Amino acid sequence: MAGRTSKSTVGALPDTAADSPLVPVALTRLMWSLFAASVAVLAARVRLGFAPEIPGVFAVDGLTALMWVVVTFFGGIVHSYSRRYMAGSAHETRFFLAVFGFAAIVMTLVAADHLALFGLLWLAMGLVMAELIGVVSGWEQARAAATVARRYFLASSALLGVALAALWRATGATTISGVAASADALGGPVWLVAAVALVLAAMIQSALVPFHGWLLSSMTAPTPASALMHAGFVNAGGVLLLRFAPVVTVDGALMLAIVAVGATSALLGKLLKAVRPDVKSKLGCSTVGQMGFMIMQAGLGFFGAAITHLVLHGFYKAYHFLGAGGEVERTTPGEKAGRSTGGSGVVEFAATLATGLAGGAVFVLLTGKGTSVDSGLLLVLFVTFTTLHAARGAVRHASLPATVRYGAVPLVFLPAIAVYALVYEGVSALLTGLPVVTAPTELTALHVLVAAVFLTAYVAIEAGIHERSRRLYVALLNAGQPSPSTVLTDAQEYDNGGAQ
Q1: Does 14 fall in a domain?
Q2: pTM for this prediction
């Protein structure tokens, strides 16, 4: 491909085995040991029903075991990648301590049952992530980005604190399991305050619109930290909603509002991505959209699907962030990224529609969802859309003739949605025993309206309508801008900051 070369122009890569500080080496080995232990816990959970607990403090259930495997795997990858990426940096040891500390906090968070402990760990998770964003202490923009992120994370923690205090007042329970057991009695103003605060805390954590500013301002973070952030940190919003699913499912109107919020972020994330010029910002906007899809699935009552989405998104986004440099290399000034040319729009639309219908049928067949007139129909629709979008994106960036591309999309999409469905079934089985895993809601006219608006907007975006309106294009550019204090205006500032 044009622009690629095998000749090294930057010198030899650092040798991580030579003169490597003790702390990065020890923490990398410890993280991979924790991964092995987590896999053993998951296997014991599946085969033996392993469920240790400290009553009122910690409880290891299916969600805990799954998230331990996911967190330690991503943590191990980031540790190993960073051995070379951070080699020679004055901040190397500090960075590794923060990454390991973050993973340890998240592992404890997903096992916490006490309300106060959960809230404190949520706060600690945000503060450590802010530290990772601004780990390069001599770089003004990085420190500014850390300050921006910290403000958002403190707001999320404050909202969660309000929700936990309200739930304690309403139920008298001091544990998450106790709140779930008393959920049938919830209602009234105190419940409303708790439920709205929980949803807002999840929205901030997952960088949903209009709280996406912290994520787009965090691109100064070292690439491994960005991978950890997008693959793990933002997904905590879905974990929060699952843990407190008995609270948010009390009222159908709130669930519909969650669907609408998620749909808005899914669409705006796609629009913002279309106008961003750099790889990392595009990935950040993609995360905004994908977290919108995750929140939509929770709002439809399919919390197992939301967890499936966050796990698969984590693998997808970690891979793309750690490979961001390769994306820059593949796009040369002589190449035009974006929509492929060639082929009839009508033919492409018909091929896409047929592929989508076939994929939806595969998902229904493998999961049984969408066979009743309830929110399961929308689940099938949204899963089909997000998976088809990913498949088309993968094929679109390949150098293929139009006729071959039409055949390549089904070859990528149909196996992908089958894998999604099978993973969803496995995750749902693993989550069995949690208070609420699946709670499909009644399909109302408002649900249909949200779906219709979503479909119309999605088709319009695919048609490039945002590119035909200067006003809309400028509005999107402005909405996708990071905080001004985090923006580099001179390449020398980057060099002088010693950023990685």
Answers
A1: no
A2: 0.86
